[in-house]
Design goal:
Elements lengths: L1 H15 L8 H15 L2 H10 L5 H23 L5 E3 L3 H12 L4 H21 L1 H8 L2 H23 L2 E4 L3 E4 L5 H18 L5 H15 L24 H7 L5 H28 L11 H18 L4 E3 L3 H6 L5 H14 L11 H14 L12 H16 L3 H18 L8 H19 L1
Antiparallel strand pairs: 1-4, 2-3
Helix pairs in contact: 2-15, 3-4, 3-5, 4-13, 4-15, 6-11, 6-12, 6-13, 8-12, 8-16, 8-17, 8-18, 9-10, 9-16, 10-16, 17-18, 18-19
């Protein structure tokens, strides 16, 4: 009876190089489960965000599970890295609140933009242009983008909970903290903070479920049961509108701006995640390079395209993968286990509507807080570096647009280099990007 098990373990050993990586099947399975627990909140949070764009919540929940499952399995199989993927936080907020709500782009066209950005990401990776773009952007802006997205996410969570509300005199103000939604969210925030401080695995998911249960017990949540049907995904699967992406729906140049943001943020979010997770896992080579980087980025490209086809925003590598690495995960088997668990979770996805926004708000606030960590890398006592980083950081949440934050930061960095006389021939792409952003602002002002 034990021979087939040993034989299967031998196959996995040869396929993933477990011994060479200092791990085994049991450790990889536990690591994969740990990663899943730390990022499973996306099953509940992503539908809550995209649902506000008018997308069917149950369908998005199913698409989220399917995209995360297939993408993580692809990453583990193709790149043999312990990196799990799912629809990215920040980009889903941009998709819902900026692209669909603020710009008035139909969600079907927005999905088309996500798909095209995945194709562009693949082309850039294969052509080697990715390295040129990365080299043109200073490292401190990477950190500022992460922090700005974190503030953006936290602001959305606080607004969803009613803790922060609109105010005609001051733009925003403190909401009624006695309101049921605000009270529920505050209780959830205390709970998720405590669980995280105690380093409880799956703290975010546990807090969401516990807060939801409290909401049900107090009568805050109302839900009309629907037929249990995995076919709900048909409402978003293959519903993307590629024709609208190229201006056939009357949205014009705005769609190219959207494509740029999806592509740019996905590119740099991936780089930051890859460096952080592989460094913690001890997988970076002696030359400082990430092994199998092109395979990782190719897998990510296909993941984004597949996610758009199924009906969700940009799929990207998750920094929560570091939790699995901390638990001992070192190979692609970790990612495959995580992906398999997402596929199993798809069975319950249609019931994501059971979770109120007040219950997911604490998760958004916590994730936003955790995204502040890279800001410590910015030398804030150097004005030439601090100003572009600060503009990137604050303009993302204050203008409700990642695009604006990136534009201000890159343009300020380029201008300061010009003023200081530190521009060289190698900065040509930085200047091109800055010029494009200036032209974009002029076009917006003229419109």
């Amino acid at each position: 009876m034990g021979e087939p098990v040993e034989e299967r373990a031998g196959v996995l050993e040869r396929r993933f190089g477990l011994a060479a990586a200092g791990t085994n099947v049991r450790t990889e399975v536990l690591a994969g489960a740990t990663t899943f627990l730390t990022m499973a909140y996306i099953i509940l949070v992503n539908p809550a965000i995209l649902g506000q764009a008018g997308m069917p919540v149950a369908a998005v929940a199913a698409a989220t599970c399917l995209a995360a499952g297939v993408a993580s399995i692809l990453m583990g199989s193709l790149a043999n890295m312990p990196l799990a993927l799912a629809p990215g936080m920040g980009l889903n907020a941009y998709f819902s609140f900026t692209v669909v709500q603020a710009m008035g782009v139909p969600w079907q066209v927005a999905l088309g933009c996500v798909f095209v950005s995945g194709v562009a990401f693949l082309v850039l990776t294969v052509a080697g242009i990715r390295q040129m773009i990365i080299a043109s952007i200073p490292q401190h802006l990477f950190a500022a983008v992460a922090g700005g997205i974190g503030l953006f996410i936290a602001f959305i969570g606080l607004r969803n909970a009613g803790i922060v509300v609109s105010n005609p005199a001051t733009a925003v103000a403190l909401g009624d903290l006695r309101a049921p939604g605000a009270v529920l969210a505050l209780v959830g925030l205390v709970l998720v903070a405590a669980l995280s401080a105690w380093q409880v695995r799956g703290a975010i998911l546990i807090a969401i479920l516990a807060t939801t249960a409290l909401g049900w017990a107090t009568g805050l949540v109302a839900f009309t049961p629907q037929p249990y049907d995995l076919g709900a995904i048909a409402q978003t699967a293959f519903q993307l509108d590629l024709g609208g992406v190229f201006g056939f729906s009357g949205h014009g140049l705005a769609l190219f701006e959207i494509l740029f943001v999806f592509l740019f943020v996905d590119l740099f979010d991936n780089i930051g995640t890859l460096v952080g997770v592989t460094r913690r896992a001890g997988l970076i080579g002696a030359d400082g390079r990430i092994p199998r980087l092109n395979r990782i980025l190719v897998a990510d490209s296909f993941a984004t395209m597949f996610g758009a086809l199924m009906g969700t925003s940009t799929v990207t590598s998750y920094v929560e993968s570091a939790a699995g690495v901390q638990a001992g995960g070192r190979t692609g088997l970790t990612a495959i286990v995580t992906g398999a668990l997402f596929l199993v979770a798809m069975l319950a996805a249609p019931y994501a509507q059971l979770i109120p926004l007040a219950a997911t708000a604490p998760a958004l606030v916590l994730v936003g807080a955790l995204m502040m960590a890279p800001l410590a890398e910015v030398p804030w006592d150097e004005p030439e570096v601090a100003l572009p980083a600060f503009l990137t950081l604050v303009m993302i949440p204050l203008t409700f647009s990642i695009a604006n934050g990136l534009a201000f930061g890159i343009t300020a960095h380029a201008l300061l280099k010009l003023v200081r006389g530190r521009i060289s021939k190698s900065d040509w792409l930085l200047l091109v990007l800055a010029a494009l952003f200036v032209a974009r602002f002029a076009w917006m002002a003229g419109g």
